[in-house]
Amino acid sequence: MIESVLVPMDDSEMAERALAFAFEAHPDAEVTVLNVVGEPSTMMGQAMSLAIEDDIKAAAEEHAEGVLDRARAIADDHARDISTEVAWGRPSKAILNRADEYDTVVVGSHGGSIADRLLVGNVAETIFRRSPVPVTVVR
């Protein structure tokens, strides 16, 4: 029986669908939404702006707040409670570092912009291939 679910979430429609699916498929499970703020690179403008902040953790949490607010609204629509977490770093690595703390991971099939998918790689595919726990990919 699935008791805990990790749902990585960015600002994409697919991530929102993944969260809704997690609620429907696992009605009794505790759900944690994880937003990963990417580490700085020359190709990631928002993450670069975080790198110059005095308090990177606080800046990352502020950056993630919009996504987490949307996750809370989806949870309210499903009459569910969620836990939220913010991580810093490469999304697939940050998600995989936490995956073994949960019974399953539910992830959207893709997210972010086309440039993000081309430059950063397919996060969902990496999670699916390397996760230590079962993964559901939602389209």
UniProtKB/TrEMBL annotation:
Domain UspA: 1-139
Domain of life where this protein originates: Archaea
UniProt xrefs under InterPro entries: Rossmann-like_a/b/a_fold (IPR014729), Universal_stress_UspA (IPR006015), UspA (IPR006016)
UniProt-listed Pfam families: Usp (PF00582)
Protein family according to the UniProt entry: Belongs to the universal stress protein A family.
Name by which UniProt lists this protein: Universal stress protein
Lineage: Archaea, Methanobacteriati, Methanobacteriota, Stenosarchaea group, Halobacteria
